[in-house]
Each structure stands twice: as C-alpha cells, then as structure tokens.
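Technical appendix A lists one of the benchmark inputs used to test multi-chain prediction within the project. The record comprises two sequence entries:
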Amino acid sequence: MPRQVDVAIIGAGTAGLTAIKEIKNLTKNYLLIDRGPLGTTCSRVGCMPSKVLLQVAHDLSRVKVLKALNIYQGDGTIDLSEGMRHVRKLRDYFVNFAVEEIKEMGDHFIQAEASFLSPGRLKLDNGEEVEAKAIIIATGSSPVIPKEWDEFKDRIVTTDSLFELQTLDKSWAVIGMGPLGLEMGQAMALLGCEVHGFDKNPMLGGLKDEIVHSEALKSLQKSFPIHLKADVKLSRIGSKIRVSWGDQHRDVDRILAAVGRKANVGSLNLKAARCPLDEKSLPVFDPETMKVKDAAIFLAGDMDGQKMVLHEAADDGRIAGFNALQEHPIRFKRKVKIGITFSSPNLCTVGQSLKDIKEPVVIGEVSFTKQGRSVIMDENEGMLRVYAEKTTGLILGAELAAPSGEHLAHLLAHAIGQKQKVQELLRFPFYHPTVEEGLRTALRTAKKQLDCKVDPGPDLDRCEA
Amino acid sequence: MPRQVDVAIIGAGTAGLTAIKEIKNLTKNYLLIDRGPLGTTCSRVGCMPSKVLLQVAHDLSRVKVLKALNIYQGDGTIDLSEGMRHVRKLRDYFVNFAVEEIKEMGDHFIQAEASFLSPGRLKLDNGEEVEAKAIIIATGSSPVIPKEWDEFKDRIVTTDSLFELQTLDKSWAVIGMGPLGLEMGQAMALLGCEVHGFDKNPMLGGLKDEIVHSEALKSLQKSFPIHLKADVKLSRIGSKIRVSWGDQHRDVDRILAAVGRKANVGSLNLKAARCPLDEKSLPVFDPETMKVKDAAIFLAGDMDGQKMVLHEAADDGRIAGFNALQEHPIRFKRKVKIGITFSSPNLCTVGQSLKDIKEPVVIGEVSFTKQGRSVIMDENEGMLRVYAEKTTGLILGAELAAPSGEHLAHLLAHAIGQKQKVQELLRFPFYHPTVEEGLRTALRTAKKQLDCKVDPGPDLDRCEA
C-alpha cells in the first residue's frame, strides 16, 4: 500500500523548501523526498562558499592597497589552508540552516531517491511507494564535465569539489568565464594562485553590451589573464595538465571546470511520468505556472533549465507550491531580470539587453574612473550603461561593470519594474559621496539625448500651482 | 561705477557652483564671488577627506579580520603619517575639480570678500562694487568651537584642521556624536588611536528609533567607548586636556570638536540687505523657492541652516539659480529625506521617523546578526526597521544600522518616493546573497502585520486573467 499524500516534493533544495512554505497553507499532507546530501546547492557548493572565498580574496586585496600606500607596513603570508578551512566553516554554518529546517519536518521528510512508477506514483530506493495528487520536481542541477575530459578527472574540480580542497594548487586553468568561473578565477588569483581563465565565447560574465564588456575585461585582466574565444584542449604533461588553445598552451596543476550545469533528472525515470519531454529530455512546462503540460507535475529550481539564480529558484518553488493543488493554476509574472557576478568590479545585467530592445533608444553612460567614491575606494574602474526609450525616457535595461555594482543593479531593477523614466529617477536623492552618484551621471547623459519634452531646471518635482 | 550683473553669487562652494549651472541657461551676465580658499567644503574639509580616512580605517579592519582567522599571518605596523598624507593627496585631487571649474569661468569669477551696501549692491574687499538684479548667498558654514573652550584651542581641532595634522595623536576625545564625529571617532579608533566619544544628547548619528539606536550603539562601542548624555567640561592637566563628565574624567592629547556648524554670514553685513532676519540673524526664506522674503536675494547651501548634506545644498543651488531671474519663482518639492553616517555599520534615516508618523503603523524589522551576506562579510551587526501604514502597507520611513546600509537607504528612499507599499516592494528581485535580502526579511515581517487584504501566495504580480 503506497503512502498517500496530496503533494510530493522531490528535492530538498531552495526550490523544494520554498515550495513547502506555500504548500503548508494548503494541506498538511505533503512529503519531501531528498536523496542527500542535505543542504541546498547554494549553501553547500554554490553562492555561499564561493562568496566566502571571494570575501577573503577581496579583503586580501585591501591589504595590498594599504601596502602600496605604505600605510600598512610589514611582511605577511597568506595561509591558503586556513582560507579554505574558513570557507568550509561558514559553509557548514549555512548548510545547517537548511538541514535544521528539514529535520523539523519530522515525518514530512524521507531521505531516499525517488523515481516515477507512473504519472502520480513514485518508488523510493528504500522500497517505499508514494502516491501523490501532485508532484513537484525540484531536483536541482549539477556541474558538467565534458566527456572528453574524463581521463583528466583526477586534476579537474568543479564547484562540487573545489571547496573540499585542503589548500589551493599553485597554478590553475579556469574553464568557463560565466559568473562562477570569473568569481573563483579572480578569487584564486587574488589569493596568490597563477590563474588563467578561458571561455570559448567572446564575452564573459553574461554581459551582452560590448562597451561595458570591454571595460570589464580590461579591469578583470588586471587580476588574471583571460582568454576568450579560446577552444581549449587538455593533455597530460608529467604531473601537469596542458591546456592548449590556438597555437598557445599552458601547463597547470589543476582545472576548475565551470562550463555549465545539467538538470538532475537521470534517476527520475521521467518516461514513466508520461509527460511530454523537450529536446533535452526535460518535461515541457509553463514558466508562469510551473506546471508540466498535461500532468499534475510541477517543476521548480535549477532543474527547469531556466536561469539558475537563487531568487528565481525560490520563485519557482513558490509558484509550484501555490499551484500544486489549484484546479486552475494561477499565472505569475516573473521578476525583472537581474544577473550579478560578484567579481571586482561587479558585473551586472538588469532588464532588457541592448540587443533585445526594439525601440529607438538613448544610452546613458558613466565611467567609474573619476567617480568620487570609487576613487576613494581605489576601485575606480568599470562602466555603467543604461538604456532608455528615446521618445519617453522609459528605462528599459542596463549593464554595468562597477564597484558596488550589485547595489546599483537592485536600484535599477526597482526603477525598471516601476516603469520609471530617466527624468523621474533623477528626482530621487543620490547621497554624497556614493557610487549611486555614478548612476546619476549616466542618467543625466541619457536625459540630454531624449526626444521628448522634459521640464527645464532642477531635477525636482514642482509643487502644485 | 559698479559692475552691473544680472546675478551675483557669493560663495563658490557646491551650492554656488551648482546655481551657476542653472543661471547659465538664463544669462551670460553673472558673477561668482568667493573670498577663498577655493574648493568646496565637501572636498576640502568635509565628505571627501573624511571618507578617505574612513576607507583606510575600514581597510585596516579587514586586515584584522584576516589575522583573526589566521589567513593572513605576520606582523605589520600602521603608519599614520602615511595615512594622513594619503588623505591630503586625495583631498587635493578632489579640490582641484572645483578649482578648475572656477578657473574656467574667467571674468565670471572674482576672488574677494563681499558685503552688502544696499539690497542689490555689494562691496568687495578689493574696492570694487557690484550691482545685481538678484543675489544668491551661498557662503556655507563653519564648525563651531564653544566660547568656553577658547583657552584649549591649541589642543582642539575641527574638521577644518583635522586633515592638516601630520599624524594622529595617541588619545582623543571626540565631542559630538553626529555623523561626522562618529565617522572620525570610529576611523581614528580603527587606526589605533585611543578614542572616547561624547555627546550631550541621548542618541547618536541622527537616529531617532530607539531600537535601531540601541543596536547601533552596541556595535559602535566595539570600536570605541561612547558616552551619551555626557555634558563635558574641559580643563588642562599638564600637557593633556582633561575631559570631565558626571563624576568621570579622561585625559587626552587632542579634542575633535564636532558640535555643530554655523552659517558664514558674519562679513556679509546683512543689515544693509534690508531683508527680514530670523532669530539666528539669518534671512527669512522659502525653502521651496529659496527666495528671501521681500528681496531679490536667494539662499543656497549650508548657510540656510537647513539639513547640511551635499545633495540638498546642490538642490538649493539649482532652485536658487533657476529662480534667480524668474518673475514668479517656481516652487519645488524637496527630495525624500535621507541621512547617512558612513560608520560601520552605516547609520541611515530615510523618509519619516517613527515619531513623526501620525498614522497607525506596522514595523518590519530585521537583525543582521544572522543575515547571510553580512555573516560572510563578518559585518553581521545592526538592525533595520521599516515603517508602513497599517491599513495600506504604504512605506513611510525607515531607520537602520546595517552593513552596506548606504545602499539600502537609497533603495528605501526610492520606494518611499514612489509611494510604494510593502507588498509591492517585495515583488522586486532581491539577489542572493546580498544585504538587500535583509531588507526583504524586514518587509516580510511588516507585510504579516498589515491590516489590509493582500494577495495570498508568491510575492509576484499575477498575469492578466
């Protein structure tokens, strides 16, 4: 006799745990299933340990600034193994929050691997069976290592294994200059490793604006050499791995493969769910309801193949959980798009990219080279470009490589979501001295190019007559 | 024969220089008068040098973090004179922007001290006379040293003299725990000085929310002892200054007096302008037009006795410049109120204070003690409280002591200015892991207390049916 539940959630990561927050409002009869190890991707092997390593690296770069100014004098050494120990200590701290949350669920949780027997029925690898009115698949994703690199696996780490290293090898090739590859490449370089970064694509960090990208690349190259449009081949030279691209090569101790992630669906036996699958063998679903076509199945989180960022995974979970037992699933609008690479400078994309915009557009621009606060921080590098509709001033999108860019990106996402115009955003306070003033400069250059009437005089609302 | 101009601007600081940006659109016949030294208060003795010193101090605190974690090992010394040299070097860099701007004005600028001869007529101390259709007074402010401290002046610095010190004395009393006193007190403490902070008021940094203040004080006290409600008396003990309060005392090398600023109007001979003066002997004016009552005189910047922050001074200048030659001056709404103390944690006030709010209110709250990114930064201290109208969710104000609080304050000012509700602001992206997620937590606690209908389910807009 299978266990009968209203909702079964496969995967106790961010998406699954968030789904439960909504499901709890609908039923007490739900079951969370996870094969382990427990802890979200974010806390175990993603956002959190990577940000800890970046923070250490960033702090060390401040030591260098003080030394260059002769303000801090003396010799010091970096203990990488203490650095890695610190990363794992904080990682464990964050993992524990998720583990505690799961433990508190008691009987609502089973640690097991689930696979479909039939559309509403799951088999667990502990022998149990579960029948559910709705099933949420939130099994996450895992880093990919290309098949042709199999023979070098002893020298390749992904984020799944990077943070387990007791110390960091001396020389690295980081393959894949997306957000994570960039962050870890720069972190290791600042920590004293010899790092080369590679990507087969012409642009890094998810940027699409060529001018912002060019400034970003210039700045990042000061930390470590980055080779774009580089199709790398690996071979073994003694104890080293030779990375070859074009007519160049470099021999390194270790490879960080950051070339993408794939959905964890291998063990689910999706065929038995009898739902339509797409060309990647993933269920066809509606991102506004998270519901799989013609099935009482919902997707949530990284496994859906959409943008793999935590707040989107959490929204997936919220939507899937909310809709799981609805007769007519509610369609939700997704949030303003925002992407952040936490390198120095931060690389951010917000709203529409320049290439996606159809309307005639003006581009407001600021370089951070002379931006006051950025100069004070000795982080005066990068550029911000904001795109606005020429005939109205409506802010449509922005890309930036900027100090404290993560915060500017939030402000811009907020303005875009509010359908604000350049000339309206200028009426809000920009405190001195902040990097936000850099954004204001960009907005002012955009305002001057607008093809619509704007009030002359101060960027302030006028009192009613 | 006096020089005839349309507009005379007295004071080449931020307010005066900004006024000219508007005046240029109206007339080419304007004259800027400044007695020197050239350079804005902000760049010479205010925001900029203080932020440079804070940045150095903050960077040194990162060294301490790395050492405590054993990641950075070795002995080092702090060279305070190199620190002060760096402060002056960057200060000169910033001052130079203003000086260059003034130089480019050519004949539009005279370096001289101006005083009124009659309502539209000025006398300069180089013997010239100027007759103007409108006069903008933008003479700024200067730090006050109470009269009873006159005999200790050799041991007292203000921000006018602090950054001229070749090095920093060992022991300090910082009197006045407003934004500047706090910033400099904490900076000097982090730089290794023995600092005690004093204020006769019960709350510091412009905060009015007692709970936020209590968290702020707890955190700041880790850098240096702060004595509030302390009415200090000074006396001389050998080469030291004895600071006495209540039944306690402390002997220090140097005093930083940060007890307030007064308008620079002493040499203006305002009587001759024949405009109405208030109890502080300052012209009575309308802050929405910046026009002095019954006179073709406008005020701008610190000298108007309003909140002394740069963006407000610049707005003053914009309004005064725009209105200087208008037959009917335009009334402008001032920006959402925002105040930032750049200490660690940042202390910020946005919009209305809790005490000013008349409506029934809910308070959203977050402690940064366990906030993810703040933990990673090892700056997990402080608290944010956001005030919203109970019956609607309308965000009215916020106070915070928070890591990266300056950025949260901008986002909150933006939301308040847009008349956003708690439940609406929650629909914008909060990227992971950022301190902005702390704000989201506070918004969620506010949302739960609202006395109005909010959509159940995900914090997302619903698609049209």
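The CA atoms of residues 455 and 464 of chain B lie 14 Å apart. The radius of gyration of chain B is 24 Å. Comparable benchmark entries are summarised in Table A2.
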